[in-house]
């Protein structure tokens, strides 16, 4: 993993393409609370559970004034299929060149079933209205992620 960001740090200003090819930037959400969540791969069990938990509780997040943005290294087309299949109501950014994951330091060595490889470390950044990282959730509970967010950010 790259240099670790800490709570209280200014959130790196990112730019990326969403599922429709539209450029989205952190600056677009100035004055709003942003739930920026990084996940490894569309359509996988853990990532689907996490996205569906956020979807199922989306109204509660909106009522609190949160904007939800997911980021993975999948393509715009992959994101479109993921959103359509699971009726996800939020933006997913395609970070195929890994610029955003590197800015946030969530790309690095991982291990699964004895295999070592590089990938995204599932991490969520809660960014306040001023663009400051209020909380970082490392290894979020995919099935109860909204509850974790609401508990931290009242």
From TrEMBL:
EC number of the protein: 1.11.1.24
Residues of the active site: 47 (cysteine sulfenic acid (-soh) intermediate)
Residue ranges annotated for the Thioredoxin domain, each copy included: 5-154
GO CC annotations on file: cytoplasm
GO biological process assignments: cell redox homeostasis; cellular response to oxidative stress
Pfam family, one: AhpC-TSA
Name the UniProt record assigns to this protein: thioredoxin-dependent peroxiredoxin
Native source species: Chitinophaga polysaccharea
